[in-house]
Amino acid sequence: MTAIRAVIFDLDGTLIDSVPDIAAALNRCLANEGRATFSEEGVAKLVGGGARELVAKALGSATPSAEVDRVLTDFLAVYEADPVSLTRVYANARELLDTLQDARVPVAICTNKPQPLTHLILDRLDLAPYFAVVWGGEPGKPLKPDAACLRTVCEQLGVIPAETLMVGDSHTDIDAALATGCATIVVAHGYEQRPLDSLGADAVVSGLAEAGLEIARLMGDDRMGDRTSKLRRPA
User: Fold this and answer.
1) How far apart are CA 29 and CA 17, in angstroms?
2) Which long-range contacts (CB under 8 A, 24 or more apart) does 208-212 make?
3) Mean pLDDT of 70-96
4) Which entry of 10, 12, 21, 173 is annotated as an active-site residue?
5) Rounded to two decimals, what is the model's pTM?
6) How far is C-alpha 124 from the chain's CA centre?
7) Is 146 a catalytic residue?
8) How far apart are CA 168 and CA 194, in angstroms?
9) d(CA 165, CA 172)
């Protein structure tokens, strides 16, 4: 395997647990429509394909496209107004990003979350300075698992896919990486509903401390391995 020179992270379910805020915004919109609401666990099963897919799944397959678009507009407005009240950064995320930054490893975000929301959330959580490239959903742009997403991010980072690692929590992330030729790590603390060992990732890890050790191994960097070995594993 080619040594890794850059790392691309998914956002929701990988670096942050955003489902509580997503659920609050979605349920407010559904209640306004006289629709049934979802538990946080139920919303976690809907995320991953972007905001429109989330809303469409919540409304049901028989919902006309125009109605999905209308509720989507409401959802985005409600979510953007209060995006991080309940969202938390996963354990060791900042420490791992600090370690990569200290090692001068280029780091990017590739998410299906809308681009403006992604920037807003990264800013509010003080995560934006870590990322050289941020790819989010916008009209006309492909979403994961389309390989064009990661291919473009690799180009913007100045690396080839074989030198790049995708860290995610779902089949969408892993499928995109496999289609692009990137190495892959899937974290077990995310929202994926399928068995993680069925996704085809190079490694399945319990969380970001273990991900750091795997990144160091794939980079062949003993000094980074020493630093990541000090990340605190959640009790």
Assistant:
1) 21
2) 208/15, 208/90, 208/91, 208/92, 208/93, 208/95, 208/96, 209/91, 209/92, 209/96, 209/233, 209/234, 211/96, 211/167, 211/185, 211/187, 212/92, 212/95, 212/96, 212/99
3) 97
4) 10
5) 0.93
6) 16
7) no
8) 14
9) 15
